[in-house]
Each structure stands twice: as structure tokens, then as C-alpha cells.
Specification:
Layout lengths: L1 H16 L1 H26 L3 E7 L4 H14 L3 E7 L4 H13 L7 E5 L3 H6 L12 H4 L4 H5 L2 E2 L2 E2 L2 E7 L1 E5 H7 L7 H13 L5 E4 L6 H13 L17 H15 L12 H9 L3 E6 L3 H5 L10 E4 L11 E10 L6 H11 L2 H11 L12 H6 L3 H9 L1 E2 L7 H16 L5 H18 L3 H6 L7
Parallel strand pairs: 1-2, 8-9, 11-12
Antiparallel strand pairs: 3-11, 4-5, 6-11, 7-9, 7-10
Length: 453
Amino acid sequence: MKPVKTIPKTITTYWQESTLFRYTSYVIAFCLSALLVVIPAAFSQQPVELSFIMLAPETPFFEPLIREFEEQNPDIRLTMVEGPNAANLVEDLNTSAYLLGSSPYDLINLDVVWTSKFAAAGWLMDLSDRFPPEAREPFLEGDIEGSIYNGKLYRVPWRTDAGLLYYRQDLLDQVGAQPPETFTELVDTAKQVQQAGAADWGYLWQGRQYEGAAAMFVEVLQGFGGYWINPDTLEVGLDQPEAIEAASFLVSTIQERVSPPGTTTYIEEDVRRLFQSGNAVFMRNWPYALPLLNEDGSPVQGNVGTRPMVSQPGVDGGGCLGGWGWGISTTTQHPEEAWRVVEFFTSPEVQKRFALEAGFLPSIRSLYQDAELLAQYPYYTDLFEVVQNVVPRPLTAQYAQASDILQRYLSAAFSGRTGAEDALQAAARETRALLESGRPADAQETNEPEAVG
């Protein structure tokens, strides 16, 4: 036992008498202390992981953008979850995640019609301070307005959309007609081409019971001078004469065989394929269809023109506002890093690249004069007029329910199960009941509607 007891004394004595040993021990102690600090820090500095869900068709275009972002931001890793093809199914996945508790997604790629619902539910961070008015100025006005709920901004636009009227210039030339300005001219010209045997169908549009029908109807409603829901007063206009005229017009195109009987089942791709086959004069669709119609091998290549949606004389028409933007989830643990992602995806450089590669329309006005984009898409000059004059769908937290009501009654009218007037009157009653049930108690008692937009 004695030799063991003498070891500490021997080391102590040696440490006191040897300068070299003493300094060496200092160095070892310092290095060990540094390791105790550095090793945990190294683990704590692992990249922050952020996730989001995307529509399936867009994921291939986003993969190189994600790699570029991660190269520029090595402290952040992005996980992109491939969602379904349909926007409403992606909305359902996001909604379910919040209803079950804390969403696993840090960022939300928002369709413009989701903004009010998600903001009212408390699922989106208020980005007003991060994205002040001076930062919004380069963006299209409609896209910014569609990003605001109750005076606060909840999303940053990154691509826009607006409904268009497509026409076959070669068929119009055959009958000596000009592109129509009014609904009456549209139908008269369509019938003229049909009677000449140049095309079987005059006007193609989306009539299935789904969100696309609501978007289509917003444009016709605007063209007849009507409205769906007044965003300032929450007054419902579906049973007004203008709205009934709008629905009656659409029904008449089917009854008079200007539009095919199958219109009641059509979505965007159905009408695009039929129009591209060369057997129709006019089509209502989104801008995505234009490069497809003009691709090599297309039967209508070089013969397609576009213009804003027609309207009644003296009424300003417009295309329905569509498009997507980026929001930040209130459940994220990394809002600062998430904001860097939003800034990257919505930047002019990334919007331009996405437009060149995927064909979608950017949300930044100056890109419609970009030489490289115009070289690839000469029609951007014409589309700029369209995207600056858009018609938004109602900015209300209950939009999804209001749209479902409208879709059901429009479908009943289009299919002939109900007359247009009866359908729109019923839709108006049900929509008023919906909006009344969603008002705060004090607003119901004083007849003051809850402010929106």
C-alpha cells in the first residue's frame, strides 16, 4: 500500500520542481477544456432542418433550387415532401396536420385562396414587418392583395395566375371575324364557325363540381357586372340579376350546343386537350396551356391567340386571380431560417429561373420585360395586361365552405337538375347563413360584419 500512497506526492513534487512538466500539464488541461466546449457546440451546430409539401408536378423543378439554396446556406437543410397532383388534396394534408396538433411543416406553399383560412386559424406567421410595403412594391398588386388578411400580410407571392380566353385565329380568319369583346360576340362567332363546319364546338370551359368551376364563374360573374361576396360588407350577390344572368349564359352555351354536353365533367386538362385537338374555337383556361398548345407537333401550333376574358358592354372584365406564395408556419421552431428560404424562393432570380424552366408566370412585374423571358415567351407582353387586371375570389376565412356551396349549385344548374335562378337563389341563402354563423357574437348583435381583407 505504501508505494501507492506515495504516487500523488511524487507527482505533486515533480510538478512543482519541473517547469516543463508543469507547462505541459497546463496545455493538456486547456485542450481538454476546449474539447468539452467544442464537441457539444459542434453537435449543436448541425444544420437546421426545414420541411414543406409541394404539388407533385412541381417537385422536379424545385430539386435544383433546393440544392442551390443549401450550397448558399450550409446551416439549413430542406426536406421537400411530394404531395398529390391536386391543390385541394395538398390543402387537406396541411389542414389535417394542424388539426392533429403541431404541423411537421415549417413552410407552407399557399394557393391564394388558402391565405384567409390559414391566417384566421392562426396557422401562419404575420410577415408584415419582414415584408414591409417598400419590399412589396415590385410585386403584382393583385398578388399582394391576395396575401393580406385583416390588414396583415401572411404570404410572399412567388408565381401568379389569371384566367384567359383562348381563340383560334385561323378559324376566325375563315369567317372574317375578330376576337370577341363581349359574351354575345363570343357566342355569335362560335356559332358562325360551327355553321361553317370548321369546328364542332364553339366554347370550352370548366363545368365539373370543383374549385376550377368557381374560378371560371368568378370571371363570367365579373363580366356581367355581378359579385359573389363583397369583401368589405360580406354582402352576398349571388341572387342578384347580374349573377343569375351569368349562370344562365353558361347554361345556354350547353343547351345551344356551343359547348359540349360533357362540359359538366370538364376540368382544365380536359378542355385543353379538346381545344388542342383542333376542334374548338374558344377556350377558357389558365396561362399554363399556351406553351403546350404551341409545342412541336401540336395541331394548333401557331394558330392560338389569347385575350382577357370578355364582358358585357360597358363592364370591365378580368381573369380570376390564381397563384401561389410562401408562408411560415406558426409551429416552426426556426422562423429566422424559414424566412431565409422564403426570401430565396421569391427572389427575382429564382422566379425567373422557375418561369424559364416550368413556364409559370412570375409575381414580379419587371420580369415581364426581361429580355431572356420574352425571347422564350413572346406572349408575356400580352399576359402582363391580364395579370394586372385580375378578379380575386372572396377574401374570407370561410372561403372553402362558400366555394363548396357555389360549386354544388352551379353543378345543379349546368347539368339541368335545377334552373339557374333557383340554383343561385339557394346558393345565396346558404352562403348568407354560412357567413352569419362565422361572425363574432358582437358583430351579429350590431349587424357589423367581421372585417376581412
